[in-house]
Design a protein that fits this description.
- The chain has 207 residues and is mainly alpha-helical.
- 43% of the residues lie in helices and 8% in strands.
- It has 8 helices and 5 strands; from the N terminus they run H-E-E-H-H-H-H-H-H-H-E-E-E.
- A hairpin with a 2-residue loop joins strand 1 (16-17) and strand 2 (20-21).
- Helix 5 packs across helix 8 (158-168).
- The chain starts with a helix and ends with a strand.
Length: 207
Amino acid sequence: MRKYIKAVSVAAILVLTLGFAQPKVEASQFLGMGSSGSEVTYVQSVLKKLGYFNMETTGYYGTITAHAVKQFQSDFGLETTGEIGPKTSGLINEVEMMAHAVYGESRGESYQGQVAVAAVILNRVESDDFPDTVKDVIFQPNAFTAVNDGQFTLQPDSEAYHAVKDALLGWDPSYGSVYYYNPQLATDQWIYSRTVTTQIGNHHFAY
């Protein structure tokens, strides 16, 4: 599995810090059968948008939630305990952050284009030229316009979550790119020096 699954980042509770939405299940927190509260609602909400939890959120961790968690864990190569421990909570938080980034950066683009943006984030995690965690890649200064202008805080739709899921499972329409840009909007001439791998919608993808 990729580095982002081998060493998931530790994320804090969902709060607005400097105007940015942060994850809200602590990696040190354990959730399992009988747990309840806003943290369970958050987990159910993310799993629902990914297609694992097929009912309204309840805030109660019962057999349906445990089954959804097991499916999520199985798909991403995690131990299928049906409980939320550090690795599972870390990956859920990363999915949430990536969905915000994908939605803020590429809503209105094709589904393939949104998967490609998610793949760029993961390719940066794998690259020696960028930070080693999803969180640090997304919040690297001036790395993503959506973080700079506040669009990161917009609530992603289900399509953005599914785009993240497909990228995490290995689909990379960007062909290994670590950059993307809209040539109609880009003002930094340096980006034009990069090798373009493909164009999807309004974005050129490059390395």
